[in-house]
UniProtKB/TrEMBL annotation:
Membership in a protein family: Belongs to the ETF alpha-subunit/FixB family.
GO biological process: fatty acid beta-oxidation using acyl-CoA dehydrogenase
InterPro entries (UniProt xref): DHS-like_NAD/FAD-binding_dom, ETF_a/b_N, ETF_a/FixB, ETF_asu_C, Rossmann-like_a/b/a_fold
Species of the source: Paraburkholderia ribeironis
This protein's UniProt keywords: Electron transport, Transport
Descriptive protein name: Putative electron transfer flavoprotein alpha-subunit
PANTHER family for the chain: ELECTRON TRANSFER FLAVOPROTEIN ALPHA, ELECTRON TRANSFER FLAVOPROTEIN SUBUNIT ALPHA, MITOCHONDRIAL
The Electron transfer flavoprotein alpha/beta-subunit N-terminal domain, residue ranges: 59-228
Keyword Transport set for record: yes
GO molecular function list: electron transfer activity; flavin adenine dinucleotide binding
Amino acid sequence: MNTLKRIDPRRPFTLTAQGLKRITLGVTAAAGAMTYNVPGAAHREQPKSRRTTATPQRTLLVAAHAERGALDDHARQTLAGAALIADASTEVVLLVFGEFNDDCAALGADKLIVLPMFERRTFAPLDELNALAACAAAYAPAHVFLPDNATGDGDLGRRYAAAVDASVATHVVEIDAAHVAAYIHANTALASRALPHVVLLAPNAVDPKLPFVGAGERVEWRFDGVAAGASGVIRDLGIEEIDAAQLALEEADFIVSAGNGVSDVPAFERLAATLGAAIGASRVAVDDGKFTRDKQIGATGKTVEASVYIAFGISGAVQHLQGIKDCRHVIAVNLDASAPIAKRANLTVIADAQETIAALDEAAAAARTARGTGAALLNSTAVADGALA
């Protein structure tokens, strides 16, 4: 099975620990490099050295929102990009909006500032802008990096650049210590310029695998700009919760999916309702009439980006794996330990799908009763997420 990740063939370079490397479809190693498959080598990974121990003379600031205590892949790539272009006298400061429980040193940060009051469910764009501006004023960074996404970071970066009248580059697809580049003219040409003050990085412009670690110092930094009604013209109307079954699969953050190994569909649907998860299915299950065509996930169905994806009784044909390639954590429940889905999964449960569905539904229902409906719903996702972190 071809496990190479599909990439944009028009993008000429990506930033790696070895510098800018030209992307060639079908090649995953640097040109001329030889790789060896040594049994057990993955279990003998050597400790990584600190990127720098010199006294910092300047700062690079990275800002991003966390989701359930961790950064997503796009934010990790942005942090890695700053760490890779930092020289020996430069420290990388990570500013996280929301709770953060990950290892910032392993991600390349030298200092960590966490603002837990800005969690994803709170809409406070002016307070976030004030917090970013206050942090930038305190550390006077040479450059500020944010992931250019549609979930708050891209908007925050643009408003910060406008507020301080700083140079900015958006949708950056190529970066090194001297320049950035982005597509123009309907993605038919590449424009480059010197590194601006604010850099909004597009996805997959940086390889997040770092050969070093950062200092990982957690800084207690107090921001007093959050106050009730302080946003003035902006009001947070709260979150309107809807049944997960009403969500389009492309928007769902938690999906349970059924394959040919699921025979009791009502029991599977009860589990989805108990967990508060959206329902997906493999092509085989859809062709058998167990689910409607809009539930099909795969190359001929829908491509999903869920944080947690649980596959019950799905063998994992290449078309289905293509549909879940962007999912953060994949849990597979299958009797066949050698099924292709097991190679993609972060956690594989070798068990009967129906028995597992019944046991999980019972456990989730008990958790709901003990902790309350809302808390259990969040906990069900957090447990799956935390087990794989």
